[in-house]
Structure formats: C-alpha cells, structure tokens
Amino acid sequence: MNKASLSPNHGLIRAFLVCIICTLLGSISIQSVKADAAPPPDPTVGGIGPYQPQKTNVQMMSETVFIDVQASPPRPEPIKPIKVRASFTMRNQGQTEEQMQVIFPLSRLGYDNNQEQSLYLVSMSSFVAKVNGKSVPISEITTPAEFPEDITKMESGFTMEVLWAAFPVTFPVKQDVLLQVEYEMPNSYPLIEGADFTGIEYILETGAGWYGNILSADITVRLPYQIEEIALHYVQSGYVISGNELHWSLRDFEPTRKDNLYLRVVMEERWRTITDLRSKVKRNPDDVDSWVELAGRYESLSIIYKMGQKDYGFPYCLNHRTSDLAVEARQKVVELRSEWGDAHFRLAEILWYTNPKVEKIWCESGYTLGSIQTNDPSIQKVLQELELAWSYGLSENMNWDKEYLVEMINRTVPGLNLVSPGSPTLTPISPTQTSAPTATNTSLPTASPTIVPTVSPTPISTEMPSTSRSNILLIVALGLIIAGGVFFRLKSK
C-alpha cells in the first residue's frame, strides 16, 4: 500500500486517539488556590516529587494578605478580577547569608476530591514582586506532576504540574527582609450560568517550607457589599465581620491543609436581588410575588447538591444560614395563597430537605436507608402538604421536581409507595403487600393561580454510577486496542 492510501487511515486513527484522550482529560475539574510565598524546590529531589522545599533558616515573622472582590459593572460589561496583595516579613535566623529564588504559585496546586472545584490561574503579566520596596525581575519555573500509585488512598487529590513565579532574594543574617506580591485572579464563578457564589481561597500550607512557625498572619477579604452571616455560604472559622470585610488573625502556627482559607460568598448580583426583595416584603408583607421569588432565592442558597459522594441516591447538604429563612418564606407564600398547589408543593419540598434525619442520610451517611418511619410527625407534615398540592393541582413546570421528590421520599422512607397525584397512595404499605391500595379519588376544584412560582434548583447529578464509569473505561480501553491493531495492520501492509 502506498503512502497516499495510508495517510487517510492514519489520520482517522490519530483523530480517534485524540478524541479518547480529550474525553479523559475533559473529566478532570480544576481547583482554586492562592498560596504563600515558599522556598525554592530542593534541587536534589529532581523530578521525583512535585515540590519539596530546600532547607532554609529563613523564618516568616509575619504576613498580611488583602483580597479584594471588586464590584462588577452591569452585564454585558466584563467582570472585574479579584485583586490580591500580600506582604511577608522574613528573617534569616541562621549564621550565614542565604540567597535563593523565592517562588509563588501561578497555577493550581492540585486536585482535591473533598471539596468543590473551581478555577485558579495567575497571569505573569499581572504578577508583581518587590523586595524591600524595590521591584525585582520575575521568571517562571515548573514543578512536575505527581501521580500516586494507588489513587484510592488519596486524602485530598493529586498534584499536577505547577507553574511558579520566581524572584531572587538575599537574606542577610538576623535582618528583616520585606517581600511584597500583587496579582489578579479571574472572578470565575459569575461566568457560570446560574452560579450563586463567588469562590475565594488562600492557601497557607506552602508557608510551612520556611524555618520554624509563622509568628503571625492577618488576612482580610473585602466584598462589594455589607456582609451578613447569610451571605456566607461557606467560610473558614475564626473570622470577624466588620462592614464589608472579613478578618482572620492567626498566631505562632505551622500551617497545614486545614489552615487554608476556603470560602464561598453570595455573588454580588444575587445578594443585591435578595436585599431588594427583603425591602419589598418589608414594605408590603402581602406582596406574594416578591415572597415567591425571595423563597426561591433562599432555597437556591440552602440546598447544596454533593455530586459524586455516592454512586446512587440523592446526596446533598444544607446551608443552615439560609435554610430556616427558606422555610419561613415558603410558609408565608402558602399563607397568602392557600389554594395554590405549587405553593404547597414547594413548602413540602423545603420541609423535606430541611428535615435533620433526611439530611443525615443523604449528607453525612450517618443513617441507613429505612431509619425514618412514615409515622414520624415531620414526615407526616411533608405528606400533608403534598396531599394539598395534588388536590389543588400543579403547574407543568413542577413535573420534573415532583417526580424527583417523590422518588427520593420513596427511597428514604420504608414501606411508602407515594405516587402523584392522589392522596390514597400516601398510606404506607406493609412489608407483605406488593401493590398500593386503591380508593376512589374525589378531585377538588383546581385553583387558578395568578402568579408563576420561582423554580428552585433542579438537583441533577453529573456523577455517573461506578458501573457506568467502569463500562466507559472498558470501552475506552477496547477502543485503544482496536485502534492500535488497525494501525499495526496497516503498517504491516
């Protein structure tokens, strides 16, 4: 076979292999980190590990970090980046002068399986470094990736190839040296459709490479609005709120992963909407439209779907800062529009999710399925609200949420065969029965709601079951084998 006839086949094989590789790479998510300055890599380590600092007698006496989440202009104007300024007072506690390339991460430090993933990338063009107030030249270095032999034993993900900004520093004996860095981070969360939060992180653990403990660390995060507790989706403990700023003060500590700052705050645009809605219902407590929207906003901040925690089921956890507010708002809507089926369904939904026993099963896995009984008063309250929802009727935009909630309840409560619509099926089935009891269903008049409810977040898991993952990996492996066979067969001809 001549080269002309081989070329198209080789092109197809290459394209096939590229597609497989892209598919595998596309399944990897990216983690957000910001990190302390660190000593350079130990030159004796080489490519064995991703980063191990060289031995040094230079100690971090203090650090001050200021993270500014800037107010963003109205869409479609570009979202402003997060600005970071950090200063470090260093002292050489040894007996000889030290010269080194201090490094600071420009890209993600690794993948973490235990927390939400997001983006981290610092461009060299935004990074500025000063030593004792004078600008210094910056170069870029790379530390290699590390892939553990047994990924099932990883505590917090694996480390990828990391880019670092490096700048030269001389540390005289027993003298303080001031290091300063400034850079910008893209505020990536608002770019995600439907995102409610802005993600902010600062990693302290890289500071452990210096000599001894860090004597003091003061960290400030400034938001573009007055901070309230309910605006904090997740936040590291030990903070103090002052106006639109959060402050942390740490003293005499050896930083580890648990000390890393990791927080999610309500996105500026979402927070403005919530404060406007709160003002409206305060001025007019009977404004049902505003109550409906406010309830939806609170609920979207309250239910956190934990993808990938289980191979099956309905994993979620609650943001308890807003979950009670979501219940109160749903109850207010039912009070104002008592004959509206959608209002009763949404109340049943949030009562179900905020039930501590239900959350325990699907968030902490502390209970086993079947630990909740149908006669539990809190479950009966959910069923009563669903009964009213079926009676008054639901709008079409409730269909998906209705089926999801019914399936979740049936999976969680033993002996219950809940089917919508129809109140007779709310009666639990004894273990010996194989079908639901039947009864005459007398329909009540359907109310004609005049408003459209806000749809709460739809819990769609992006994590495939373990069986599906195995099948996909098997298909990929077979595809590679077939492609290789075709390649060698063509080559032999």
Secondary structure layout plus pairing:
Elements (H helix, E strand, L loop, with lengths): L2 H24 L31 E12 L12 E11 L5 E8 L22 E4 L2 E2 L3 E5 L18 E10 L4 E10 L11 E6 L11 E9 L9 E3 L5 E3 L2 E9 L7 E6 L1 H16 L4 H15 E3 L10 E3 L1 H17 L4 H13 L2 H9 L12 H16 L6 H14 L53 H27 L1
Parallel strand pairs: 1-10
Antiparallel strand pairs: 1-2, 2-8, 3-7, 4-5, 4-8, 6-7, 9-14, 10-13, 11-14, 12-13, 15-16
Helix pairs in contact: 1-9, 2-3, 3-4, 4-5, 5-7
Short description:
This protein is an alpha+beta fold. 31% of the residues lie in helices and 21% in strands.
Please state roughly what percent of the residues sit in beta strands, choosing from under 5%, 5-15%, 15-25%, 25-35%, 35-45% or over 45%: 15-25%
What form results from the Cα inertia axes?
elongated
Count of extended strands: 16
Main sheet properties: 8 strands, mixed
- CATH class category label of the largest domain: Mainly Beta
Give the overall average pLDDT.
Answer: 75
Order of helices and strands: HEEEEEEEEEEEEEEHHEEHHHHHH
Q: Count up the domains.
A: 3
- CATH topology (level 3) name of the largest domain: Immunoglobulin-like
Fraction in helix: 25-40%
* Helix count from the secondary structure assignment: 9
The N- and C-terminal alpha carbons lie at a distance of: 6 Å
What's the architecture of the largest domain in CATH terms?
Sandwich
